[in-house]
Design brief:
This protein is 8% helix and 62% strand. The protein is mainly β. The protein has a 20-stranded antiparallel β-barrel. The N terminus is likely disordered. It holds the Pfam family BBP2_2.
Amino acid sequence: MKKQEIAQGRRRYAGLAKTTLCLALASVVPGHSNAFDVDYEVGVAAQHSDNIARRDQDEVSDTVVAPRLWFSAEQAGSRLRLAAQGNVEYRTYIDDTFEDQVRGRFNGRLDWSVIPQRLDFVVQDSLSLLPVNQFSAFTPANEQQVNVFVAGPTLYARFSPVTRGQVDLRFIDSYAEESPEFDSQRYSGALRVLHELSPSSNVGVNAEVLDVDFDMPNRAADYRRYDGYVSYAADRRRLDLEVDLGYSKLESRRAPVAGVQFEESYPLGRITLNWRASARSVFGVTVRHQLSDAADYLINTRDLDFGLDRRTRDFNDFRASDSIVEPNVFRERLVRARYAYDGARLDLRVAPFERRMSYVEGFVEDQRRSGVIADLDYRLKPRTTLSVYGANSSREYQISGREDEDWTAGIGVSHRFTRKWTGRVDLEHRTRESTELGRSYDENAVMVSLSYRR
């Protein structure tokens, strides 16, 4: 155990350091001449909550002040492609309800064409702020930084003008600040043969293997997963479609101390569809039926994020995802629809979803999550925007029978004083109704921010 504690201490800040690697590599990779498109926003945000700890009783109010830096970077050259965004902040709790904190978020991917059309090198990183205990309310005492880092080469072979082969090799490192059972090293390989049906569509045959070694194997079993599937992708003028259909096989390689070895087969199905009904309206649907785990989810967070990317609110936001930090593999069934309308003065986003997770190792709580997120922005004046937003999420735990239902409703106004200076005020109400005694709460919060945008 002492050896594991020493290793955990060495890795304490490893996840935070890796979030800068995409940008660092991009700055030294030779052979690209396009300049970076860098955007940033810096300023201060503050929140006053009448129930900062989100308790059922003995509510405590506090004010948190957070200097913040939000940034994004893009590079779209012939040899180098980069997309990254994130933020870093220092939170100060005026009444000392919680300790002051440095927190950050990051999501980035770098693709370097080492040998054009022959060899690429990929680096991807996701840094999130997630709960330590999924059964407790998300508070400053129940949060941790979670990092998933991916790196490796992709090799290409051209068999004919319309058929090519592809080999993906990846190293994946997952790290959680307060949940060492999540930490693991993963090695994956994929062999693909893709055939172009037309300039805008292709079909493929894919074989993948993933090998997972946990730092604490007494908590979850090390395992190997095999995926085989056929794929179809089409990128039309008004319709984008991606389909994967196949099968997965899961084998434990070393059982945890209190567990048993397992072997599992499960159908694999993934569908993503986006239909541009008009120049302003987009409908979409995502369906997943697969074996997965929390690290997989975080790697693909841009595709499966249940939130809405609302840049006007990012700087004023003190919320965070309630994704699960759990090492065990689960059978996932997900359905999410979405609608987006971008008008001259009105922007609207609606995203209902349902997600079921049944864990392969039976000592983990199976659960069902469902809900809807709605977000509306209306430009009152060229420089003033009114926002109204709401979210509902219900969770059902199959073993304990516990049920939680969360509601969030808010209204805000943002105003650009100049081209670069923006102020924002939000009023927000959050509530949880839980069948477990002492887990319900009500919270009211006001948030203000002033920021300078490049």
